[in-house]
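hey so u asked for the seq, here:
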Amino acid sequence: MPDRPRLDLLIKNVRVVRPHLDAVETRDVAVKDGRFVRVEPDIPAGLAREIHDARGQLGFPGVVDAHTHVGIYAPLRDDAVTESQAAVTGGVTTVLTYFRTGQYYLNRGGPYAAFYPEVLAASRDRYWCDYAYHLAPIEASHVDEMEWLATQQGVPSFKIFMFYGGHGLHGRADRAAQGRFLMVGEDESYDFAHFEFIMRAAARIRQAHPRLAPHVSVSLHCETADILNAYTQRVARDGSLAGLRAYSAARPPHAEGLAVWIAGYLAHETACPGINLLHLSSRKAVEAALALPRVFPHLDVRREVTVGHLLLDCESPTGVLAKVNPPIRPREDVEFLWQALLERKLDWVVSDHACCAREMKVAAERPDDIWLARSGFGGTEYLLAGVVSEGSRRGMAYSHMAEVLAWNPAQRFGLLNKGDIAPGYDADLALLDPTRRFTVRAADSPSGQGYTPFEGLELSGRVTATFLRGALVYDGQRVVGPPRGRYLHRPG
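ran it, structure tokens below
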């Protein structure tokens, strides 16, 4: 009687891309119980129940998109379905979403002890990729819940929106409006003192829980409200700029740079070494972020960039559809971001995916008005292809792409089973044909957004299959099977 197959899946003829390993060698990749178990040449096909022939295509570790906003502009239960389906079509197998109380998301305040179980309940069985959440302590009482979130709920990463205390999500807003937006009491302020207390709490968690310590971090959206308010008023009143150039001028790069220095000093003052500087968009912001460790060498600073800030600039033809915070910048800033990325001065690349349907994105009566448009857009499905396409053109090694798209964010945020194609890791794999060119069309994406600011871009590097823990979830034409995404309790 023949032996029963010892492998669940065998993917043959894969040009395996691994972080920190420049050689891209053709291997067979074996999967058992959702994990990689062998990565070797010529594994016998008879050992496996199922065979997939990669035909010499590149195999990247499943992308870890560490910055998304699933559920911000649509109900979480619905957004999780369409946006995770979009993710897997682009080779993304794990998303981490920044979530908070207040307007948008669940549109309610209150303690995370009541709020977060609702988030998890709305997420269950709705994702086609694995998922986790970062949380933002908005109310003063949330600071006291951070240890519970980190130790009991698997959420050791927290966020600070530095401009929220004095500037609106989409533009200028008075203090009363911001209080309603954040849903905090009249006696509470979302300010530098609150940010300090968040960092002090994170430092206490690191000290009290050594096993968690490497993965406890505070992420910061670095822009200063006072500068945004002043420049928004000046740029709008002057009227000589319009569209993306106006919005970039209204949120100038030095507002980012100054916020980076404030973030760094607060981290130093509070003995909170683990900080992540999110979506750096400009030369001034990156230069400030690179200078921090020279002044505070004990800080563990990580620097993030988005695919939107790498592929778009102020002249992008989709105009207001590319409104985002911080803004899309002029081409000279884009080129500096690429230079920093290629020199390994930036740690990971993300999408900052925030699906915002057109009817919500733009004002019906003035659809080209940058001041009335909402901030944010989707793009997780173009993350891998965008980096492969533009990175290859600039000489970026595939292994480096694997580091910034999978390994680095997985290690930082405690996704210890993700980010590599090696025995013991989750069998998350994106097969990609680097020779296949395609033109971005929103109509081709399952996303609920219905448009994309990347419309018309020609990219080289088409994802032909995506596997999540050894299960095919995208076959190159359509999303396959039921939602298999699992909540990732971190570290794990």
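The chain has two domains: 7-53, 62-413+436-455. The radius of gyration is 22 Å.
lmk if thats what u needed
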